[in-house]
Amino acid sequence: MILGGYMSEKYVDIYKKLDMDIEKHSELMSALFQLFSDVFLTQKNRPENIKYFDWLMSEIHGKRIEELMEFKDKNKPLVGTFCIFIPEEIVVASGGACYGLCGGAQFSIPDAERDLPRNICPLIKSAYGFKVQRTCPYTQISNFIYGETTCEAKKKTWEILNDLHPTHVMHIPHMKGKREKDLWREEIYEFKNHIEEIVGKELTFEELKKGVEIINKKREALQRLDYLRSTKPDIVPISGLDSLLVTQISFYDDPERFSDKVFELCDELEERIDKGISVCESDTPRIMVIGTPMAPPNWKLHQVVETTGGIVINEEACIGHRYFKDNIDLDGVESVEDIIERMLERYMKIDCACFTPNDERIDKIIKMYREKKADGIIYYTLSFCHTYNVESKKVIDRLKEEKIPVLKIESDYSAEDVGQIKTRVEAFLESIRFKKSFKAKR
Amino acid sequence: MILGGYMSEKYVDIYKKLDMDIEKHSELMSALFQLFSDVFLTQKNRPENIKYFDWLMSEIHGKRIEELMEFKDKNKPLVGTFCIFIPEEIVVASGGACYGLCGGAQFSIPDAERDLPRNICPLIKSAYGFKVQRTCPYTQISNFIYGETTCEAKKKTWEILNDLHPTHVMHIPHMKGKREKDLWREEIYEFKNHIEEIVGKELTFEELKKGVEIINKKREALQRLDYLRSTKPDIVPISGLDSLLVTQISFYDDPERFSDKVFELCDELEERIDKGISVCESDTPRIMVIGTPMAPPNWKLHQVVETTGGIVINEEACIGHRYFKDNIDLDGVESVEDIIERMLERYMKIDCACFTPNDERIDKIIKMYREKKADGIIYYTLSFCHTYNVESKKVIDRLKEEKIPVLKIESDYSAEDVGQIKTRVEAFLESIRFKKSFKAKR
Description:
Two copies of one chain form a homodimer.
Chain A: H1 9-17, H2 22-41, H3 51-58, H4 63-73, E1 78-81, H5 88-93, E2 97-100, H6 109-112, H7 122-133, H8 137-141, E3 144-148, H9 152-161, E4 167-170, H10 178-199, H11 205-230, H12 240-249, H13 255-275, E5 286-291, H14 300-306, E6 311-316, H15 321-324, H16 336-347, H17 359-371, E7 376-382, H18 386-401, E8 406-411, H19 418-441
Parallel strand pairs in A: 1-2, 1-3, 3-4, 5-6, 5-7, 7-8
Helix pairs in contact in A: 11-12, 11-13, 14-19
Protein name (chains A, B): 2-hydroxyglutaryl-CoA dehydratase subunit D
Family (chains A, B): Belongs to the FldB/FldC dehydratase alpha/beta subunit family.
Organism (chains A, B): Thermotomaculum hydrothermale
């Protein structure tokens, strides 16, 4: 497999148009593809249909950017985001594209730390650094960056980022009562207005409905994958790393093509289950990872777990289950207002730790743990993410009450703590294995 | 001066009633009073009328708690807070008392770190630790702790704290548009309802007006002190430490008595100015401290500045100018609704870094700097306070544009970094002195 056409002339032309730092970008891509090869292509027994996703990762700054340039040429909105609170259905309804921005690499952090404190979340620093470096084509090509108020370090960073690139900040309230719903509804309409200004027309009912249908289908595809990877207690047909890759790609691929490809992959996974093909032994400790999102190329924890004898069967995270768990109910909608109302309802179900209280998240985690017959939970939090970090106390207390094995890991994007994490994960998996063998004997 | 009657029998009786850990509390108080003696009583040339405030500090867990017990016996609401967004006028209108809770000491932090992450703001950990330890009588005596959503570590900590003590969380939105105003108004009414439930009656227009008048007067007293300490470019009639002490005490003293005492102090300061009595040489570098609040006994930075040859002439902080800068305009109010509306307007002027954007804060800082003829600014932020920390970039960029000398210091409550801070402050003051002498020569 040839990784990355990012050095080909036609892409370099695009990078030039997007005012990118081409030399620095080459450095980034070469490091990225080396890492991708090391982490993903060394895995054994991968499903055949994962190839599409490998290819799309290799074309993350290639073919996909070329496609987005066509949107740009047709004056269709291109919106980059770092948060799943973005009503992407509206962007898609307008004929535009919505995608997650680069924010998972250590590479850009030193450039961010000239402007931002060192002790904030690495995702924010990484993302901001990519803008400073001009090495992320998704940022460069976007009409605006979508910001929100879910976390305070992001909220304050938009103000600084706005000097480098236009931002649209949506006020996400931190409770879920009627007054917050009223506020939020107005924010959705304002976002819709912004998109309509770009395309120069009001979105019709049909367009909006179509936008919702496309994203609903994408979420359904991801729900099916989530189900298949963990439905059998003794067969796991796809690795956690590969599943994470698919979810990460859901944030930048064309949603319709993506859904088709995920359904194809799922068909294969069903066949694998029927044939008893698993990527791991049947007694492998099944781990749920819960907490903060892992933006590519943040594959650190999954790699550690899966090279230490465990298997990740779920991500309860924004790049994960939290993103695709709820669809927008279109049943009986008759007007634009109806759709916006349903959209509001759907987005209010997101159980981000920015909300207070957020107890529904805890109930959900325990339910998922039982359903997926997991053996243990790793509570993963990015360094300095106060909301998920403080919330871990309540979550972990409840898990302990339920006698669910849990390990908390706080980490950033540096490679420095890999050894330490590996040691802790090893001990955790060992204790789970001990329990499993003890149960099996009884 | 005898520091602290906290060991006397009558107070110990109260501590017992409040279910406090009496032994641990004695440890705390003995450390506190030693520190207070070392920092405050060693100062020279203090105004005579500071004695009242010394006394009130010595009675922080003595006489003042005895007074609050009388409120409790009369079923008057006692509300503890960590934020100036609390509409304290409503509590005072009901005949109750509103006060800041202990949250400035390293003493309680180890006990908090069993439940909370190490890498959140020390104020939150300290405050939470006091509840765990049962060493803060203000917390123990309160009907409820007032929480809010201004910062995420606090917001999430209320959920945990609520298991140990009742909390009332007010949703403070992070923008200042009409929809946020609508949300906030409802929050104020809900807070008022809560207070009314405690007293068992609706608050009348007259009561509310009286409550506002009492707090307005307190703010006027503090405004006058703020003016007097910095009005003359060559005479500073009171140290920064003593002024900070007065502001800190404004958060727990009886507001009417406090105002009278501050006015008495101010009369003396005016006399001092007339007589040319200053606590420092006329060429002493005049420092404005801007940023996060300093809860007692967090006197670290002021002590460093004032024992290193500088003088602090202002605190642009929540325990400082941000708290008292705006009064509630009662002109023409005719109903309870009118008062709430004016209250809303006043509280919306708070330029906390939780807001996005918050540019009015920057303009204000520069205006204050000019008016107070300051020589330099120290941007102070508590460790891991993302909002003030990220906002520092915009503030400092603007200050540099305006050629205002600025030093940023991030610190917690430990004594470990005092030496390092001293070195940095020394160099900063030296550079200011050099500039001043250069200007004087020209």
